[in-house]
UniProtKB/TrEMBL annotation:
Cofactor: Zn(2+)
Catalytic activities: N(6)-succinyl-L-lysyl-[protein] + NAD(+) + H2O = 2''-O-succinyl-ADP-D-ribose + nicotinamide + L-lysyl-[protein]; N(6)-acetyl-L-lysyl-[protein] + NAD(+) + H2O = 2''-O-acetyl-ADP-D-ribose + nicotinamide + L-lysyl-[protein]
PROSITE patterns reported for this sequence: SIRTUIN
Organism annotation: Pseudooctadecabacter jejudonensis
GO cellular component: cytoplasm
Annotated positions binding NAD(+): Q87, N88, V89, D90, G169, T170, S171, N195, L196, A197, A213
PANTHER family the UniProt entry points to: NAD-DEPENDENT PROTEIN DEACYLASE, NAD-DEPENDENT PROTEIN DEACYLASE SIRTUIN-5, MITOCHONDRIAL-RELATED
Enzyme Commission number(s) from the entry: 2.3.1.286
Domain note: 2 residues (Tyr-52 and Arg-55) present in a large hydrophobic pocket are probably involved in substrate specificity. They are important for desuccinylation activity, but dispensable for deacetylation activity.
Primary location recorded for the protein, binned into one broad class: cytoplasm
Lineage of the organism: Bacteria, Pseudomonadati, Pseudomonadota, Alphaproteobacteria, Rhodobacterales
Any Pfam family: SIR2
Protein's recorded name: NAD-dependent protein deacylase
């Protein structure tokens, strides 16, 4: 079975990572929007680096939870061909044992040169003095508002070949990820939403399971592997 899984902030919430669009989420603070645009970085790179240094430390302090571990087990099982796509910029999937994770929004843990596009592991603290070997300024290797998510060709190809598309812990608000369920359905795939509560796209899924990710995801994986 070919399975495409999309994960969002909800899968990492129980590991201590904050969500973005739920009530009380990070994007309810309008000042934070300035920290997630190329224009904001150009205007005040020190403030942007300070924010991402904090988020990077938060990522490193958190541990994978049972949902991450269950998906890693599913991906490692030879009976399933799993493409794991995440909107998250943490590395909790990898630390749980998943491999070849498609980070469509990049990751806090890598730096990106604004001049030559080179990427390298981010130090724990990045500043305006953090530079690429070419001399260019460094920024976090994350996709900001107004930028194109990474690896969309690869994700699109996987969706058109999937037998099952599963969205876990995602709001269903942000495109292009919000449109993945429609692409999968048009290609003939079964669709499943696993979430704490129904998302903005809940009615577009054929099936659903609601509750904490640490309970619903392991239960679903056990069902698949039974």
């Amino acid at each position: 079975m070919r399975i495409v899984i999309l994960t969002g902030a909800g899968i990492s919430a129980e590991s201590g990572m904050g969500t973005f669009r739920d009530k009380g989420g990070l994007w309810e603070n309008p000042d934070l929007m300035k920290l997630a645009t190329p224009e904001g970085f150009a205007a005040d790179p020190a403030a942007v680096h300070a924010w991402y240094n904090m988020r990077r430390a938060k990522v490193r302090s958190c541990q994978p939870n049972a949902a991450h571990v269950a998906l890693a087990a599913l991906q490692q099982d030879p009976r399933a061909e799993v493409t794991l796509v995440t909107q998250n910029v943490d590395d909790l999937h990898e630390r749980a044992g998943s491999h070849d994770v498609i980070h469509m929004h990049g990751t806090h843990l890598r730096a990106l040169c604004v001049d030559c596009g080179a990427r390298w592991p981010a130090p724990s603290q990045m500043t305006v003095d953090t530079r690429c070997a070419c001399g260019g300024a460094a920024r976090p290797d994350v996709v900001w508002f107004g930028e194109v998510p990474y690896h969309m060709d690869r994700v699109g190809a996987a969706l058109t070949q999937a037998d099952l598309f599963v969205a876990i812990g995602t709001s269903g608000v942000v495109y292009p990820a919000a449109g993945f369920v429609r692409v999968a359905r048009q290609a003939g795939a079964d669709t499943l939403e696993i979430n704490l509560a129904p998302s903005e796209r809940a009615t577009e899924f054929a099936r659903s399971a609601f509750g904490p990710a640490t309970q619903t995801v392991p239960a679903w994986v056990a069902e698949v592997l039974a």
